[in-house]
């Protein structure tokens, strides 16, 4: 058989007949090609896959690096369609709270950092944690934080839309009992009017964010981003969408690209909250030198809040001490010019031929952005080729899903409920919480879905995300809406070829096929061959980007 293959290769084009630089053999390789085939070997040369199966074996030459998989499973490099990679890096020096389990644990961590911090300097925690993991199931109050950090302002972000601070931080921000509720945000107050230190949604959190110390110098930021990339590589992630960057952050990525220090392919979406910011984001991407490791992706628009601020058709529940307005329906983040300004911005994005990804959590918001996308589709032509997308898509209505499928509007789904399910139940009630991010229904409606994590809002482990997709489990131990679970094969598709399609990169990424870029992950177990409950135990033993090993452990 081998001699026959060699004879055939002798008649093949010269490029194919050349020996491979790297050969992975004796494995179970899920290619994620159109037929979702499985093969035993793959050959790599010049950063691309050149052959699979027996044809790959025939390309082994004297100088070929051979990696014997020993029966292990390999898959395409994982693509996360929503990772705040820069923020992941900035979180690394902060106080880590993900493994705390009580208010006392949180206070101990904050107190330890405060004792090592000069009086008056800020104590800042990582955003990667959630009060659902605490026995008390709530955020610490300003007074509790004061007890361990009386001489330092304390800032504890939780995800991207909620913060808890102490009295010194409130004082620096000028927030008192007399401060009115800001547009697009909520200052949580006691019955006597005193702020508790909890701030919800951008309009309120910005009051403190604007008095925080500046970010570290650019060289330190670049170092931290490379650390974040290494952590992503160790999780099997080879490509991400960085959603909502500024020109300064774009400059950091360009520097990393020019220095050859990028190990995660990164698509950039410029953040916009006004029509003018959309125009600036479009201009920033004009003439951008696209590179295999760094590309522009379009514009991100934040249209509502998170679990505590997604704009709803029906009111939220009363949450004593946190949400006491019986008619509260969340926050809608339209620009000063309202829908007309946003619509004109969408038209500009369409004319520029760019993608728009809109953050939309509540059912009201999803209905609204679907309607506006549809209006642009009617006026200027199909949005389908531009791959316009709804981010997060927590509570889509059936009419919105039908319209998305008709227009070719895509969606990105993340594993927020693994941590945020606690507040979904408290703020929305069990019915809405169980329905949240109904991937089964979204796929069945014919909507194209890409998978991701939204790290560091929630952990960036793609295998934990796929575990949630297939079990609807949470870190609190219960399941929310198991009827909306999908199969392991579908979950893997969301993280590979589906995300490549969402990026317009399906000709290069998302599957193990000759001609595509050699991004690949070797796994500790076959995630398609174990029970869904065990998927989160999966680890990346080897990660390759463009045929180069960027992570290796245990292989």
Automatic annotation (TrEMBL):
The record, for SUPFAM superfamilies, names:
Composite domain of metallo-dependent hydrolases, Metallo-dependent hydrolases
Q: Name one GO molecular function term.
A: hydrolase activity, acting on carbon-nitrogen (but not peptide) bonds
Q: Does the keyword Signal apply?
A: yes
Which InterPro entries does this entry report, sorted A to Z? Amidohydro_3, Metal-dep_hydrolase_composite, Metal_Hydrolase, YtcJ-like
Amidohydrolase domain location is: 66-551
- Annotated signal sequence is 1-17
- Source domain of life is Bacteria
Keyword annotations of the record: Signal
An example Pfam family from this entry, by short name, is Amidohydro_3
Q: What is this protein called?
A: Amidohydrolase
- According to its UniProt entry, this protein's organism is Falsiroseomonas algicola
């Amino acid at each position: 058989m081998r001699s026959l293959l060699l004879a055939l290769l002798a008649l093949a084009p010269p490029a194919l007949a050349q020996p491979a630089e790297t050969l992975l053999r004796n494995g179970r390789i899920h290619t994620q090609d159109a037929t979702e085939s499985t093969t035993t070997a793959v050959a790599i040369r010049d950063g691309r896959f050149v052959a699979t199966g027996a044809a790959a074996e025939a390309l082994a030459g004297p100088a070929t690096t051979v990696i014997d998989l020993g029966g292990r499973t390999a898959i395409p490099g994982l693509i996360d369609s929503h990772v705040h990679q820069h923020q992941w890096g900035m979180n690394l020096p902060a106080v880590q709270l993900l493994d705390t389990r009580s208010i006392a644990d949180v206070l101990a961590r904050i107190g330890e950092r405060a004792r090592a911090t000069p009086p008056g300097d800020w104590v800042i925690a990582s955003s990667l944690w959630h009060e659902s993991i605490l026995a008390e199931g709530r955020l610490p109050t300003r007074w509790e934080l004061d007890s361990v950090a009386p001489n330092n302002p304390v800032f504890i972000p939780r995800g991207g839309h909620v913060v808890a601070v102490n009295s010194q931080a409130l004082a620096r921000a000028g927030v008192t009992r007399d401060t009115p509720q800001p547009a697009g945000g909520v200052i949580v107050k006691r019955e006597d009017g005193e702020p508790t230190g909890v701030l919800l949604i951008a309009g309120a959190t910005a009051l403190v964010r604007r008095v925080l110390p500046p970010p570290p110098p650019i060289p330190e930021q670049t170092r931290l981003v490379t650390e974040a990339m290494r952590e992503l590589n160790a999780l099997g992630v080879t490509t991400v969408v960085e959603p909502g960057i500024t020109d300064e952050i774009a400059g950091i990525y360009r520097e990393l690209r020019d220095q050859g220090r990028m190990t995660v392919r990164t698509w950039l979406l410029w953040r916009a909250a006004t029509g003018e910011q959309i125009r600036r984001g479009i201009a920033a991407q004009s003439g951008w030198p696209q590179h295999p490791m760094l590309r522009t992706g379009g514009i991100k628009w934040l249209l509502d809040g998170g679990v505590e601020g997604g704009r709803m058709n029906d009111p939220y529940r009363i949450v004593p001490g946190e949400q006491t307005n019986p008619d509260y329906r969340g926050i809608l983040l339209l620009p000063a010019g309202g829908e007309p300004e946003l619509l004109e911005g969408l038209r500009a994005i369409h004319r520029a031929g760019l993608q728009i990804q809109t953050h939309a959590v509540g059912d009201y918001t999803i209905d609204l952005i679907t309607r506006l996308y549809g209006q642009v589709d009617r006026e200027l032509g199909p949005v389908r080729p531009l791959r316009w997308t709804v981010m997060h898509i927590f509570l889509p209505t059936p009419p919105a899903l039908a319209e998305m499928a008709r227009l070719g509007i895509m969606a990105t789904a993340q594993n927020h409920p693994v941590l945020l399910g606690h507040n979904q139940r408290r703020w929305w009630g069990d019915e809405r919480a169980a329905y949240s991010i109904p991937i089964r229904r979204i796929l069945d409606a014919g909507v194209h879905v890409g998978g991701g994590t939204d790290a560091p809002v929630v952990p960036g482990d793609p295998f934990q995300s796929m575990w949630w997709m297939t079990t609807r489990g949470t870190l609190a131990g219960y399941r929310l809406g198991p009827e909306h679970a999908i199969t392991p094969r579908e979950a893997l598709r969301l993280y590979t070829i589906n995300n490549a399609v969402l990026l317009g990169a399906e000709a290069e990424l998302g599957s193990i096929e000759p001609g595509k870029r050699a991004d690949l992950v070797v796994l500790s177990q076959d995630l398609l061959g174990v029970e869904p409950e065990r998927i989160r135990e999966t680890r990346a033993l080897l990660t390759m980007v463009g045929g180069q090993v960027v992570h290796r452990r245990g292989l």
